Amino acid sequence: MKRPDFIKSCEELRTNESFSYPGDTETFGTGAALGRAFGLKRVAINYEVLAPGDRSSWPHAHSKEEEFILILEGTPQVWIDGNLYDLKAGDCVGLPPATGHAHTLINNSQKEVRAIVVGEGDVPNDKIFYPMHPARNQEMKKKGHFWEEHPKHELGPHDGRPDSKK
Asked: Strand, helix or coil at 51?
């Protein structure tokens, strides 16, 4: 029996498309915007595939959006406020809104990492800040998306970049 269109494999939906931040040439992991692919509006679900030396984004924190990461395969590290924490398949990271904990997923291993990243779609009045990218914060400020009053956390020693790109 043919499966209905609302049942798919993550790999079937995966693309090789990546993204870069404006004015920067670094590319990030690939994967699939699963929520969009299924027409979901309130929840953003992404299948992230990070090659060795990739990261999921620049370190950032949200004022209102919740985020959740589930590691499916591989041994990435999660960067939280300048500190690296080792992860493995089955590990989860929950990032409640308004904590100010800046984060990104980094693959410093020699094998691909696969993860599911869940957030919220179109959160009204959500603001964001990038502790390692002042120019991006200025861009967000001009667009009205900068989180001015974010909680201040002392940053650890790591710069948020994969080891291979330092």
From this structure: coil
Rounded Cα distance between 103 and 113, Å, is 17
Helical residues (DSSP H) of the chain, grouped into ranges: 10-13, 34-37, 134-143
Per-residue pLDDT tens listing for the chain (166 residues): 999 999 999 999 999 999 999 999 999 999 999 999 999 999 999 999 999 999 999 999 999 999 999 999 999 999 999 999 999 999 999 999 999 999 999 999 999 999 999 999 889 999 999 999 999 999 999 999 999 999 999 999 999 999 977 6
pTM to 2 decimal places:
0.94
Residue 22: in which H helix or E strand, if any? none
Which residues are within 8 A (CB) of 146 and not within 5 positions of it... i.e. 6 or more apart? 127, 128, 129, 137, 138, 140
Using alpha carbons only, how large is the chain's radius of gyration in Å? 16
Burial of 17: CB neighbours in 10 Å, binned 0-12, 13-18, 19+: exposed
Identify each DSSP E strand in 5-153 by its residue range. Answer: 30-33, 43-50, 61-62, 67-73, 77-80, 83-86, 92-95, 103-106, 113-120, 128-129
3-state secondary structure of 32: strand
